[in-house]
Design brief:
The protein is an alpha+beta fold. The chain is built from 9 helices and 9 strands. Helix 4 (128-149) packs antiparallel against helix 7 (234-253) and helix 4 (128-149) packs parallel to helix 9. It is globular and about 55 Å long.
C-alpha cells in the first residue's frame, strides 16, 4: 500500500546577500498557486496530493523554479534558505495584508516569533480512527523528524544556541495539546478551544502534528506534520517523507505501535503528551545530539 502525500512549503524571498525582503503581495498577484503569510517576507505554495515520489519531486521543484524566474524580473532577488530571520530585522513585523483581522491578532499576540519558514508534510488517511492513531504515534516521534531537519541556528545575525531556533521560539498553540483518544475527543476539544478563545479559528492549532481536512474538526482526511524546519533539498525532504509514510504503514500492520496501546504509559496520556513536548524542546536545542526520553 502507498499513501497519498503533499507539502506546504513556506520560503523567504530576498537578495543573494541574505537580506530578506517582503515581496509576497507581488508574488501572489502575479503567480497562481502562491498564498500570503501574515508577514510579507515569506510566501507559501502547496503541492497536490500524489502517491508517486517522482511526481512529488516535480511538484516540489516546479513552483520554486517559476518563483525564481519571476523574482528575477523584479530585480536582483532570489529565494533565501533557512527557517528564521537569520540576518537583519528579527523584531519588526512587515504585514502582508494590513486589513486582515486575523493577522492583527497574530502580530499583536506573537510578534515575529511566527515569521518562520518551514515544510509541512501531509499524509492522506481518510479513516478517522486510523488518523487519530497515526497522529498519536507521530506526536511521540515528531522530535525525530525535527532532528532530521533542524537547520535554523541563527536569528537576527546572532547564534541563538538552538539547532532549530524556529521551533524553539515558535508559539505552540494552544500551549497544552492532548493525545486525542478518538475523533469525538478531537471535535469536543477543538470546540472547547474555540469557545474559550484559546484558538481563534480551526487553523489556529499550531502543534507538531495535527489532523487536517476540508472541514475541521468534523471532516478529516490527512495527517499534517508541522514540526520540520524548511528542507530545501527535495530528495532529502522526500526521504524524510518516506520515513513518515513507512511508520504509518507499520502502524496499520501493527496496532501496538499506537502509544495508547503499546506504551508502558498507555493509561497516562497526559504524561505521554508532556513527554513528547519535553523531547521537542530538547531536539530544538540539540537536534541529533539531543538526549530523549522514551
Amino acid at each position: 500500500m502507498v499513501l497519498s502525500k503533499g507539502f506546504e512549503v513556506e520560503i523567504y524571498t530576498g537578495r543573494p546577500t541574505g537580506e530578506i525582503i517582503g515581496l509576497s503581495d507581488r508574488i501572489v498577484a502575479a503567480l497562481d498557486g502562491f498564498v500570503r503569510e501574515p508577514d510579507s517576507r515569506n510566501v507559501e505554495y502547496t503541492t497536490a496530493p500524489a502517491h508517486d515520489y517522482d511526481q512529488l519531486l516535480c511538484a516540489l521543484v516546479q513552483p520554486r523554479l517559476r518563483l525564481r524566474q519571476y523574482l528575477q524580473t523584479l530585480g536582483n532577488y532570489t529565494l533565501i534558505p533557512g527557517s528564521t530571520l537569520a540576518l537583519g530585522e528579527s523584531d519588526r513585523f512587515y504585514r502582508s495584508d494590513p486589513h486582515n483581522p486575523y493577522h492583527d491578532y497574530i502580530e499583536q499576540t506573537y510578534g515575529t516569533d511566527v515569521v518562520t519558514a518551514s515544510i509541512h508534510i501531509n499524509i492522506g488517511i481518510p479513516d478517522p480512527a486510523l488518523l487519530m492513531k497515526a497522529c498519536r504515534l507521530v506526536r511521540m516521534e515528531a522530535p525525530l523528524f525535527l532532528a532530521l531537519s533542524a537547520s535554523s541556528p541563527f536569528l537576527g545575525g546572532q547564534v541563538s544556541g538552538h539547532h532549530s531556533t524556529r521551533w524553539a521560539i515558535f508559539p505552540k498553540t494552544p500551549a497544552q495539546v492532548p493525545l486525542f483518544q478518538n475523533h469525538s475527543h478531537f471535535i469536543e476539544w477543538t470546540e472547547a478551544q474555540l469557545f474559550t478563545g484559546a484558538m481563534q479559528n480551526v487553523r489556529h492549532l499550531w502543534s507538531s502534528v495535527r489532523p487536517n481536512g476540508n472541514r475541521r474538526p468534523y471532516d478529516l482526511n490527512r495527517l499534517e506534520l508541522r514540526i520540520c524546519d524548511l528542507v530545501t533539498h527535495p530528495v532529502h525532504l522526500l526521504a524524510i517523507t518516506a520515513l513518515l509514510e513507512a511508520r504509518i504503514l507499520q502502524l496499520m500492520e501493527d496496532p501496538s505501535l499506537d502509544p495508547l496501546v503499546g506504551s508502558d504509559f498507555s493509561a497516562a496520556p497526559e504524561y505521554l503528551a508532556d513527554l513528547a513536548d519535553a523531547n521537542e524542546v530538547a531536539v530544538a536545542t540539540h537536534s541529533l545530539d539531543a538526549q530523549l526520553i522514551h
